[in-house]
Design a protein that fits this description.
The complex is a heterodimer of chains A (426) and B (150).
Chain A (H helix, E strand, L loop, with lengths): L21 H6 L4 H8 L2 H11 L11 H10 L6 E6 L8 H8 L1 H15 L3 E6 L4 H17 L14 E6 L9 H8 L23 E5 H13 L1 H5 L9 E8 L5 E6 L4 H8 L9 E6 L5 E3 L10 H6 L8 E6 L4 H15 L5 H18 L3 E2 H17 L3 H16 L1 H5 L2 E3 L8
Parallel strand pairs in A: 1-2, 1-4, 2-3, 5-9, 10-11
Antiparallel strand pairs in A: 5-6, 7-8, 7-9
Helix pairs in contact in A: 2-6, 2-9, 3-4, 3-6, 5-6, 5-7, 6-9, 13-14, 13-16, 14-15, 14-16, 15-16
Chain B lengths: L11 H11 L7 H11 L3 H10 L11 E6 L2 H5 L2 H12 L5 E2 L5 E6 L11 E3 L2 E3 L4 H17 L1
Helix pairs in contact in B: 1-2, 2-3, 5-6
The chains are: A alpha/beta (426), B alpha+beta (150).
Chain lengths: 426, 150
Amino acid sequence: MNNSAQNDKYVFNFNFDEYLDIETYKQRGGFSALESALKEEQDNVIKKIKQSGLKGRGGAAFPSGIKLEMVNRAEGAEKYIICNADEGEPGTFKDRFIMTHIPYQLLEGITIAAYAAGAEKGFLYIRHEYPKPRKRMEQAIKELEEAGYLGKNILGSNFSLELQIFSGAGSYLCGEETALLASIEGKKGRPQIKPPFPTQSGYKGFPTLIHNVETLTNIPKIIEKGPEWYTSLGTDDSHGTKLISLSGDVKNRGLYEVPFGTSFHEIIYEYGGGPLEGHTVKAVNIGGASGVLVPPDRLHVSLEYGTCAEEEITIGSGAVFVLDERRDILDNVHNRVRFFLHESCGKCTPCREGLRQANILLERFRNAEASYNDLEKLERYTRVMQDASFCGLGQAAGNSLKTSFHYYRDEYISKIRNEEPAEVIA
Amino acid sequence: MTSKINVQDKSLLPTLLKKQKDSPFNFLSEDDVNSIAKELKLSRSRVYSTASFYSEISLSPRGKHIIRVCCNAPCENAGKEAIREAITKELGIEIDETTEDKLFTLESVNCLGACFMSPAMRIDDEIYGNLTPEETVKILNTYKKEHVDE
């Protein structure tokens, strides 16, 4: 894995052989951002984050400074901050590495964001599948409280932050912010209608700032080195760097910190060392289970919010999963559909029933028993799921299906047995 | 917005997880649900509604060690099915089954965030990656041995 040196071109500077301790973090300038932020007006801190152009790294890419300002400006007797560490997007493991290797940078980011938003209580919502990162964060929170970087009157200021860890219980949907709130409130992790947005009415009805682990870990560096430094990284369209979780059929799987503007081709061939010996790239799944399938001839596209939006590539959480020529696209798509079928909360019909039908139809294709009618149905159900689902889960569940119809249609056609209309699906 | 949430609600999910952890069979019985409902002053249906929603909470008895094999695409492509078969062959259990000696339950899980070392599985709080069927059997044996040594 790369980026081991403390390099000014990176925000995270992972050294995967090192599990940072608090003293080393301090020696490298840790907590200097917190110290200076606490001496500034909240609005100044917000201004710097807005100037940096930082966007939410969990998948939605909402401008972080604006979200921060919304919570700061919202009326509420109390305000909360929640760090979303429910990293459930299949193929994503960046937040796991942040929590195990650089937990202090994350906690410093949470504290600065909480100060700017005016939140004095908060949660770190960690998925149940991460017992070790959870223990590491518990320990780090304790250390920071003892050293005066967390808890009451941080560094002698008037600002206090009480931060608790909250464990998830195995639900992908709880990564969605309103479902996450429901989960902390002891309910089923089902999404709620927006508005009101959590920035207005979140935990217990109070204004709540919810940010992803990677987003918050950027903040100390933006404050320490300044927004101009941050905007000098990446491109004019997208500032900073992105953590890429690279998996699948490549030589060097792993986590990479990549400046915006890098092409997906470079990510796979330079960072990842290319496909395995004697094999070729057939498809690349970008953005995890909720992402798209991209054929090799489109990998020249660069990792940038604007460009990717134009090219209909979902950056999402930054998961890049490579499939070589041995892989069956329908197997892959079916795996995704089974995943969403399991994780769907069942609240809305398009998602619940659409996925159930897609599962039945894909089984038919994989058994080479499908008809043209089945393909037409699968495409129609996918459209309905994407257009009419209540939350992002159902909408995104159609992404790999839709792109597979477009780029890998032959694979469906080759599995069609006859042209008779299929029987009514039970 | 007025909030109907009462103070105890925050502790429902942690209480469920803790109670399950304390159970020798890694699950919540009807009695557990009743006592949690009483303790937190919630209706039993509320407690059931939450308990039944989450994958990590079981309402039927499980083994001492829970093996979770990742079934997502990166692990599936890397040979998860061979790992699952090796476990089934070694322990005689399929997904969602428990061995007769109540030592192991086999489950499938949606992504352990270990795709950089797929295929991966989790046994209790440990994650094992870059698995081969042979390696998997060796790992299972260390858990069996630990049990014999107790």
